[in-house]
């Protein structure tokens, strides 16, 4: 959103963008911040003041050049210092299309990244705008607010009416690529990209009006992770934290991802012979210790994310129990 006054422009930006700006103008930051501001920076041709409200004021002869660096670029990449060639003045970088909640959107979300036991599941789901009222009626919302029973019940109906794609990164594979030095952030980026591309294939020739990823990393970093991939979904890709509250496609994706995760945990519990707990607290240490005592340490990699500190804690418990 732009409102022009002579010699200045106001850009409405998200918290993340403002944070990025502060880093970008690090060397020009003023010692004293005006009331209500996050930072102020002064350069020869332009003064920049970012407010807690999300407004960022660019003033001075070069206001336009400077402000343009922060317009939304399609890849969401960090500014290069050059003004963007194509101007899309309706969208500020880090912001979403105004009507996105009512658009036909592919949403994607992941589950399991913080759980010691179990895989990472990523789902991209396509919700056409006509389906939004129905999903709302069903009570589709963030999976974190729903019990497992409710998730299962809702997932069963959602998956019948919505095109989606599920990526499951199983523990053995996870541990294998983690040991090559790949970060969890990169794994997630690869999985989101694959899931999104699969859904796009499924719905072709229809195209989504927007693609919304529940943000787990800065957009620039996300695309950095995808460098070298044969195919990258870039067009109309947006990021937002708490995205399940912005579009039901992300909420539906989060429900389907959690459903897949729950089902996988059931399989693991069956293989273990006792219920496998979620999370990364003391309960999982106990469960892992039990598993090691029953099946041996070499089987653990099929059940858990080995690089978590829980592995050591479980081993300590095993040593205690053996003594
Ligand atoms: Mn998420």
Strand order of the main beta sheet, please? Answer: 1-2-5-4-3
- The proportion of strand residues reads 15-25%
Instruction: Report the strand count.
Output: 10
Helix-strand sequence: EEHEEEHEEHHEHHEHEHHH
Distance between the termini: 67 Å
| Biggest beta sheet summary | 5 strands, antiparallel
Low-confidence stretches: 73-78, 80-93
If you had to describe this structure to a student in words, what would you say it looks like?
This protein has helices at 15-24, 63-68, 132-138, 148-161, 171-179, 184-203, 219-226, 248-272, 282-295, 310-322, and strands at 2-5, 8-12, 37-43, 46-51, 55-59, 105-111, 120-127, 164-169, 210-214, 237-240. By secondary structure, the protein is an alpha+beta fold. The strands form two sheets. A five-stranded antiparallel beta sheet has the order 1-2-5-4-3. A five-stranded mixed beta sheet has the order 8-7-6-9-10. Strand 6 (105-111) and strand 7 (120-127) form a beta hairpin. Helix 4 packs across helix 8, helix 6 (184-203) packs across helix 7 (219-226) and helix 9 (282-295) crosses helix 10 (310-322). It starts with a strand and ends with a helix. Bound molecules: manganese (II) ion (MN). The site of manganese (II) ion (MN) has 3 residues, from strand 6.
What can be said about this structure in brief?
The chain has 323 residues and is an alpha+beta fold. Helices cover 39% and strands 18% of the residues.
